[in-house]
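It is worth pausing here to work through a concrete case rather than discussing structure prediction in the abstract. The textbook approach is simple: state the sequence, then state the predicted structure, then interpret. We follow exactly that order.
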Amino acid sequence: MSVDAPTSLYLDPQIRDWVLFPITLVMILVGILRHYVVVLLQSPPKKLSRAGVREQRALLRSQILRATSSKSPIPPAHYKALSRYLSDAFRLGAYLKDGPPNGDVVSSATNALTDPATMDGMMAGMKTQLVMMVPQMIIMGWINFFFQGFVLIKLPFPLTFGFKSMLQRSIDAPDMDVRWVSSLSWYFLNLFGLNGLYRLFLGGDNSADSSRDMTMSPFASAGASQLGQPQDFTKLFKAECDNLELSEGQYAWAGEELDVKVLRKYGKLLPRSD
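Step two, the predicted structure:
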């Protein structure tokens, strides 16, 4: 009784030298080149004007004052004076970057399509996505045109039949062992498998990570820029006035009866009996 032995394939060594190694080397070099092109395309962040920094710091100062109101290190008189000063300044628009509003003119947030900084961010994001996607499309077309149907390598570990469609793209051979890898499948394996190598040589926050190309659209960064459009500080300051008034009711000085607490801690006074 004879049992059919599995059919073995013997690959020409020139396939390894002229197909397998070139595809891997080209993908490594393109990934490194793409990283440095993206770095060159990124423009340095624009500095805020002095009035813009003053506007943001005033809001931050008020938020810190509210956050520490329950155990504030500021004495009561100074706390109330500071809180009322900030409330009046916010209400009058003294800290606004463009100055106090004139008359009944209501200021509004800058439109993302008319703000130069937002438009620059959108264009930079689209150029970055273009640099990340076009090389992969060119490499895939190059492999499909010159190496379509090539069998390149056999994986050294067993796999189930479910991996056949992933590892043997562009090869119509139902009886072939699952462990054989086609040229197009080798491209996809390198597309995700080289990310660890990129992180080793280029750092964790590199632009050669190809997994982001499959999950991000060319307009994803444009949408992020629209979400991060300039805030309307007029509305924020009005809301902060209400928050400051509420925090005054929760105010408690951290130095209240501090001398009594120190004396009681070191045994100079009897503990309080509740």
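Step three, interpretation. The chain has eleven helices and two strands. Residues 100 and 250 are 30 Å apart (CA to CA).
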